[in-house]
Amino acid sequence: MIVDSHLHLVGRPMPALARAACSDGCFPVARLLALMDAHGVGRAVLLQNPTIGTMNFEVAAAIDRHPDRFVGRIQVDPLAPDAAAIIRT
User: Fold this and answer.
1) Pick from 73, 63, 53: nearest CA to 29
2) What is the pLDDT along the chain (89 residues), one digit of tens a residue?
3) DSSP SS3 for 66
4) For the whole prediction, is pTM greater than 0.85?
5) Are 27 and 12 in contact (CB under 8 A)?
6) How many Å apart are CA 74 and CA 52, to the nearest integer?
7) Rounded to an integer, what distance in angstroms lies between the CA atom of residue 21 and that of residue 37?
8) How far is Cα 82 from Cα 53, in angstroms, rounded to an integer?
9) Is 72 strand, coil or helix?
10) Which of 5, 17, 80, 89 is most buried (most C-beta within 10 Å)?
11) What are residue 70's DSSP bridge partners?
12) Residues near 87 by Cβ (< 8 Å), separated by ≥ 6?
């Protein structure tokens, strides 16, 4: 099984990320799954990119809906006053 260890979930258009397979630079769950299937990728690790903001809840929702396809990691600013609370949720 092929595992992509670095995949970004992007739920809004990001023209700077645009490629031939994704002209708007948007990578929602359905598009990620279609691309994974087209390239024989069975599972993926969902990561976040600090330049587009924290997406902990979106990543968690994708994992909840497709636990057989995705695992992920959270993004937390360790200096934020609510960092411990974010980690606990």
Assistant:
1) 63
2) 999 999 888 777 777 766 766 677 677 899 899 999 999 999 999 988 777 778 888 899 999 999 999 999 888 888 989 999 988 87
3) coil
4) no
5) no
6) 14
7) 13
8) 16
9) strand
10) 17
11) 44
12) 74, 76
Length of the chain: 89
The residue type of 53 is: G
How many Å apart are CA 8 and CA 1, to the nearest integer? 20
Structure tokens belonging to residue 8: 């970004």
Residue 26 phi, psi dihedral angles, 5° rounding: -100, 130
Domain ranges of the chain: 2-88
Structure tokens at 55: 């997406």
| Tokens 């260890």 belong to residue | 5
Give the amino acid at 55. M
> How far is residue 58 CA from its own chain's centroid?
8
